[in-house]
Amino acid sequence: MTAAGPVEHYREAFAALAARDDAAAERSAAFERFAALGFPGPRDEAWRYTNLRRLESRRFAPTDAAEAAVVSLPSPLAPHRLVVVDGRLRRDLGSSGLPAGVSVRSLAEARSAGLSVAALLRVPAGGGTERFAALNAALCPDVLFLEIADSALPEAIELVFVPGASEGSMQHPRLVVRAGRGSVARLVLRHSGDDAERLVNVVVDVEVGPDAALHVYRLFEPGERTFHIERLEATVGQRGTVFVHDAQLGAGLARLDLNARLAAPQAAAELTGLFLADGSRHLDTQVRADHLDVGTRSLQDYRGIAAGRGRAIFNAKAIVHPGAQQSEARQSSRNLLLTPGAEIDTKPELEIYADDVKCSHGATTGQLDAVALFYLRSRGLSETEARSALTRAFAGAVLSRMDHEAFARVVRDTLDLRLARLLETRP
Amino acid sequence: MLSIRDLHARIGARKILKGLDLEVRAGEVHAIMGPNGSGKSTLASVLAGRDGYEVTAGRVEYDGRDLLALAPEERARAGVFLAFQYPVEIPGVNNAYLLKAALNAIRRERGLPEVDAFEFLALVRGKMQLMQMDESFLNRGVNEGFSGGEKKRNEILQMAVLEPRLALLDETDSGLDIDALRVVANGVNSLRSPDRAVVLVTHYQRLLDYVEPDVVHVLYDGRILKSGDKSLALELERRGYDWVRQEAQVA
Ligand SMILES: Nc1ncnc2c1ncn2[C@@H]1O[C@H](COP(=O)(O)OP(=O)(O)O)[C@@H](O)[C@H]1O
Ligand SMILES: [Mg+2]
Fold first, then answer.
1. Which residue among A33, A153, A167, B77 sits deepest, i.e. has the most Cβ atoms within 10 Å of its Cβ?
2. pTM for this structure?
């Protein structure tokens, strides 16, 4: 790598940000981890379909300056709201107060409460996005540490992530969630943004305690000039469950690594969602479940839609590690190409190192059913109406699983709007 | 109302309709009978505008318009309805959604205001009673998991709601038990009126006991070989189709 290479750019940004908090050692270590891994090389299997040359060529500026004055916020999806601008919690913009049993703290607050800074800036190991998770640990202006007390059953909370700085900036928001034993909670993570060019490099580090259930509803909406990289990692305790409902509807180039570590007996994960790669978006989603103990269960179920010059990659991996007997892993990936130029590559992978397990997987990629399309048109529906009804039906199985009313409605409406636009502009 | 002249159609290289003539006037019910593979469903598909069929000669006029020049949805909005021989299952597209979208598309075309959810429900409830269908069908996917008989009833329900001017029924009676057949026949009879026409494709004269046709045609190898009144159906039931072919060869 030459001196003017992308890593050096980030090094300069890192140097300029030094001495913000008392975590200098952790941040330096994280930065060196990023520098050592660098950007993925051409033969990096984890980046086989996603080329980062364009991202490497950009010199995004960090946003450690004064807080942005104006941000526009979408209307709320849950009774409680936290607003995160450029990676910092803005208490003045969110709802006042949080439900009982929920607290949110900054890195400094967590530190003075005696919590481990190293744990909050932890870099999840392995996978194609470790380098970016490390960069996030080095550059994140703060950590949002959201804690759900043992046995708490709070109302749903929405976290809205918005960029404050404009064109050419980068954001490294970091959210750490601990769901205490026996708690049940619902979090909406909504990334909104505009058409400016920027990098949004997210880390969401989740720990689900024993007997807890955490539902995460994730919506990514920013425009086609956003580079988006995210590592969402959930570690699940005994009989705990993490549910992730994902809607990747934005970004020009996106890479999401969604990992569940089922680290104790009967831990479970349901990782489901959909993506819409229209326009010239390139969306790369990698879902992975590690079965590390007995009786663990995972479901990975995604629907993908591509149109125009859109391109999507969906890779689902379930690994049943030695000793994880009586585990169950189910994978399903169904993909729809709405126009001839679009492309989706899907690969379900099962790696099984235990003998008493139940696994299933399936992957399909196809077009709208011509017979169904004719049937609907023969009843008087226009071609656009018919195509959009069938496309909605295709996404329906995953949409109907989104058991958060307001979230599901926004996803549905956004999808409808985008489908109407792209079906109507067809030649 | 419907005037078909010398219609030739093929699928790929295979010629299926080979000079078909048919004249249907408003107020009439026509039955088309013929052995398997003679081209009955092909005729229905060509009239409804399905892809994959190439019309190589002939023309079809519907109310004085060139029917073949219209897109499938334009035909539907102009009042043409095809009850499919094999209705399609469309999981995830709600039956009620389809009925309402179809009804409003047709009403818009006729210059009528769209029905709201309330008016729609009132209308559909009445038609469902006629078809002896449970209302729970409304909230299921189109034909999703329906039995063969339920699918056929659902086709006729759609027809009853959409009130087409020209209804084509492709073997809607096949596979129905006698009670279901009566219900379907009721649906068809309730549509009969001086300004509408019905074309029934059927194998059995059984249906014709309940829906009395004005004209019966024999379709054989892509052409109408013989036409007659209701008694022709009875004769076909007794004697099969071979004699019609022999008679046509002699002539
Ligand atoms: N998609 C197709 N490709 C090739 N041949 C077809 C296709 N569909 C129907 N045919 C043939 O066309 C002929 C007429 O079929 P069809 O119209 O369905 O007959 P019917 O409804 O009278 O039983 C049959 O010989 C059938 O095998
Ligand atoms: Mg047929």
1. B77
2. 0.89
Written as one string, the DSSP assignment of chain B is: -EEEEEEEEEETTEEEEEEEEEEE-TT-EEEEE--TTSSHHHHHHHHHT-TT-EEEEEEEEETTEEGGGS-HHHHHHTTEEEE-SSPPPEEEEEHHHHHHHHHHHHHHHTTPPPP-HHHHHHHHHHHHHHTT--GGGGGSEETTT--HHHHHHHHHHHHHHH--SEEEEESTTTT--HHHHHHHHHHHHHH--TT-EEEEE-S-GGGGGTS--SEEEEEETTEEEEEE-HHHHHHHHHH-SHHHHHHHHH-
**What pLDDT is attached to residue A4?**
57
Contact A235, A209 (CB under 8 A): no
Nearest to A219 by CA among A261, A249, A253: A249
Closest ligand 1 atom to B45 CA: 17
Residue A333 lies in a domain: yes
Structure tokens at A335: 């993909």
Residue of A nearest to B103 (CA): A380
Q: Is residue A426 part of a domain?
A: no
Q: Which residue has the tokens 């585990």?
A: A327
> What is the DSSP secondary structure assignment for residue A41, as one 8-state letter?
P
Q: Which atom number of ligand 1 is nearest to the Cα of residue B171? A: 21
In a domain, A289, yes or no: yes
Q: Which sign does the torsion angle of CA A130, A135, A138, A139 carry? A: negative
Tens digit of each residue's pLDDT (9 = 90 or more) over B55-84: 999 999 999 999 999 999 999 999 999 999
- Judged against a pLDDT cut of 70, whether residue A65 lies above it is answered with no
Closest residue on chain A to B90 (Cα): A372
Domain coverage including residue A245: 4-368
Neighbour count for residue B176 (Cβ, 10 Å) = 21
- Are A235 and A207 within 8 A, CB to CB? yes
Give exposure, B94-111, as e/b (b: 16+ Cβ within 10 Å). bbbbbbbbbbbbbbeeee
A275 assigned to some structural domain? yes
**Residue A280 structure tokens:** 């010239």
Query: A120-166: per-residue pLDDT in tens?
Result: 999 999 999 999 999 999 999 999 999 999 999 999 999 999 988 77
Tally of domains within chain A:
1
Cα A377 to ligand 1 centroid, rounded to whole Å: 22
Q: What is the pLDDT of residues A200-217, one digit of tens each?
A: 999 999 999 999 999 999
Query: Residues of chain B whose C-beta is under 8 A from some C-beta in A?
Result: 48-51, 71-73, 75-77, 82, 84, 87-88, 90-93, 97-98, 101-103, 105-106, 109, 141-142, 158, 162
Contact B22, B34 (CB under 8 A): no
Q: How far apart are CA A120 and CA A102, in angstroms?
A: 17
CA distances from residue A179 to A105, A125, A234, A250, A395 in whole angstroms, order as listed: 14, 21, 11, 28, 30
